[in-house]
Amino acid sequence: MAMESQPSRSFYNGTGSSQQHEQNTQVYQENGRWYGTNKKGAYMFPVDAKDEQDRLDIFHKFCLVARKELLHKAPVAVEEPSILDLGCGTGIWTIEMADKYPRGRHVGMDLNLIQPEFIPSNLTFLQRDIESEWPQELKAGTWDLIHMRTLNGSIASWPRLYAEAYRHLKPYYGHIEQVEIDFTPRSDDPGLVNGSLISQWTGELLTVMDNFGRSMRLDSNVTTQRLAEVGFVDIKEEVIRIPFNPWPTDTYSRDIGRWFNLVMKQGFQPLCLAPFARGLNKSFSEINDFVEEVKAEVSKKEKRVFCTMHIFTARRPQGDNPASSSQTSRSRARQH
């Protein structure tokens, strides 16, 4: 098994000042893709310096199209906000937020340091496991917004993660925002989904990730309940239909489908390669052949199939302090 150090990319095109972000992430190769060694196996998707990181940045553009250029939905009530991005990936969302709020404090945390070499001066990236205890410099009760995007498939205990986020948010003002994709294919014509390759791909991926203990399933009721049990209030959910290709007739939905089709053509293989190889004992060629068939199917405009994006926001209420809520929220999390 090959192992080496993978350098970060060096671009940053923001308008603010920049600081050098010197880092390397240790990677190993499996089935032609590069994976991070930090907490090996916890994150089952590649971190390739070009292919996967480019895909993640394209996914960010897709999210902006789907959300009509909104970087966040949760309110930010101050001019100098403290914003924490969990599982920040390439850091592109965090960087754009640092440009949007140049007087704020911005931190991105991820298992792998794959962010650009030069970043805004008000931004810091930390290599941390967000499922472990967070570093003390991220003081409890001080964050205005904690953001996470597409972490389904990477988290073993959502209640525990929600509890830690709750503890770190400012009482009354602090908000959490979570963006996830439910890949389950749907159609106004059920016959387009039943027996389809995209349905098979999704079903196998969801099942094998369940077996690994890091589910990719999304249940709105479960997510809402977990947030409420930790203590969050004002829990809201927005759902956006995501076509798998540009089959819709209206411009907005067609643009979403065009970008999502590009994302998924690049994403089917990295999303399923390690899960199928490790969990289903499928060979590299078997997986690639299947992926090519799925890509061809979802690109046909007569396949009027869609999935959904879910945006959850919630607020930490007034009435407790970081010390007391630490014990309370953690005890709630341990019950699940």
Automatic annotation (TrEMBL):
Signal peptide: none
Keyword Methyltransferase on entry: yes
Record bears the keyword Transmembrane helix: no
GO cellular component: nucleus
Gene Ontology biological-process entries: methylation
Region (Disordered) location: 1-25, 316-336
Cell compartments where the protein resides: Nucleus
PANTHER family in the cross-refs: METHYLTRANSFERASE, PROTEIN-METHIONINE METHYLTRANSFERASE LAEA
Protein name: Podospora anserina S mat+ genomic DNA chromosome 1, supercontig 1
Organism of origin: Podospora anserina (strain S / ATCC MYA-4624 / DSM 980 / FGSC 10383)
